[in-house]
Amino acid sequence: QVQLVESGGGLVQTGGSLRLSCAASGRTFSSYAMGWFRQAPGKEREFVAAIHWIGGSTYYTDSVKGRFTISRDNAKNTLYLQMNSLKPEDTAVYYCAAARIYTITTAYDYWGQGTQVTVSS
What we know:
Elements: E1 2-7, E2 10-13, E3 18-26, E4 33-39, E5 46-52, E6 58-60, E7 68-73, E8 78-83, E9 92-99, E10 110-111, E11 115-120
Parallel strand pairs: 2-11
Antiparallel strand pairs: 1-3, 3-8, 4-5, 4-9, 5-6, 7-8, 9-10, 9-11
């Protein structure tokens, strides 16, 4: 089992920045990929970004490319999402996820509880 705990969400104005963190514990050596997803009210959960734990390859959905950066600290077992130039449409609950295979948008096995990000216009 892998436990994931997100932090860093909050309220920010349009154009502002936030950094989300996801602390992983448990059988973290079994995680090959980690990702960020988000779910806005009344919408389906969507993929935001992913990183492969070994090698560090990164992937982003088109709407956040150039604004968001996913990174990880292997020593701390922590995943980050730096979000810049935030827009009201980025408002959502953001979830951290871990997978036991090299994946990008699907087949994640473990999920955090989510952290709210609200961008005011």
